[in-house]
Amino acid sequence: MPKIALIPGDGIGREIVSETVKVLHAVGTRFGHNFVTETALAGGAAIDDCGQPLPQQTIDLCRQSDAVLLGAVGGPKWDNLPGDRRPEKAILGLRKELGLFANLRPVKLYPVLSAASPLRPDLLANGIDLLIVRELTGGIYFGPRTRVQQDGQTIASDTEIYSTNEIKRIINVAFRLAQKRKHKVTSVDKANVLESSRLWRETAVSVGQNFTDVELDHLYVDNAAMQLILNPNQFDVMVTSNIFGDILSDEASVLTGSIGMLPSASLREDSFGLYEPSHGSAPDIAGQNLANPLATILSLALLLRFSLNLTQEADAIENAVEAVLNEGYRTADLTKEQSTRVSTTKMGDLVVAKLLGLK
């Protein structure tokens, strides 16, 4: 029986994970699977319980599981803690401890949500369906950092470091995914300025020679940011470094109308992965039954697809979500005049009903 570690986390995390577990059990009922789930603490909830954002027992549970489903961590309650004790440290810790080097963030605009996108209708005529692949365990977020006093002032530095092997493995992931999509990879760097980006581009070209069925092009990160707005439909798979991927994926998330629609997967070289919505913990609406659970539910679909190899089941979840949206149901972040506003729990119930063929 597949075992899934659940980390609800903070803020709306408990609400959206709860709805996603309902969907998981509906998948089990429809397709005859028995899923085992076990819950663990991370983030602010773990700090409150045991004084640290990522307890060893949480790491151990994740290692003993086939995949991890995470809600969200963080909130103003813990904003004044030192950096090594902040809730967000749990995310970086999980990536490092579990070897999760590849972050996948699908960016898909459902046609029925086109009016919620900030882009002009003519820019959406051909839809949006792209995938951002972000290197997750290297680069400036994990490089050496210093803070020193010199000549009466403070000088701080953060260092971007990448090795050929680190770049190769993430570029390979991007090409393999492109082979299952529209056969195009756009590698994003800043090779006109940064030495690490020059190595990134050289390595991308080298790896690309092994994938003759996939087109490879390159963009500087500033141009890529503009092109995401001017012509998002030109992209299939974008692959980039940790910091550039962090920025570009957040920019791309608004194209779909709400960050509440964006799932993500963080993978290592085997089938293991951590799956989470792209949004944060939204403490301002926590506990009010207002949050959009669809990003987390769609993250479950990615979990079934990538970690458990249950493609039919993943498709069923994605089809159920689209069917609910097509019928006009929306949470508060997506509500428009000609739609029916529903709560977090009601949206979960609607997806479950679609999965089970209920009225």
Relevant terms:
Isopropylmalate Dehydrogenase; 14 strands; 11 helices; 359 residues
Task: Describe the protein.
This protein folds into two domains: 1-101 and 259-359, 3-Layer(aba) Sandwich (Isopropylmalate Dehydrogenase); 118-256, Isopropylmalate Dehydrogenase, CATH 3.40.718. It is 38% helix and 20% strand. The chain has helices spanning 13-31, 44-50, 56-63, 89-98, 164-179, 195-208, 221-230, 242-253, 294-306, 311-326, 344-356, and strands at 3-9, 36-39, 67-72, 102-108, 129-135, 145-150, 153-158, 184-189, 215-220, 237-240, 263-267, 273-277, 329-330, 340-341. It starts with a strand and ends with a helix.
| Domains (count) | 2
Average pLDDT rating: 94
Helix fraction, binned, reads 25-40%
**Strands of the largest sheet, in order across it?**
2-1-3-12-11-4-5-10-8-9
Helices, by number, come to: 11
H and E string: EHEHHEHEEEEHEHEHEHEEHHEEH
Q: Any low-confidence stretches, pLDDT <50, length ≥5?
A: none
**C-alpha-based Rg, rounded:** 20 Å
User: Strand tally, please?
Assistant: 14
CATH topology of the largest domain: Isopropylmalate Dehydrogenase
Beta-strand residue fraction: 15-25%
Oligomer: single chain
Assign the CATH superfamily of the largest domain. Answer: Isopropylmalate Dehydrogenase
Structural class: alpha/beta
The CATH architecture of the largest domain can be given as: 3-Layer(aba) Sandwich
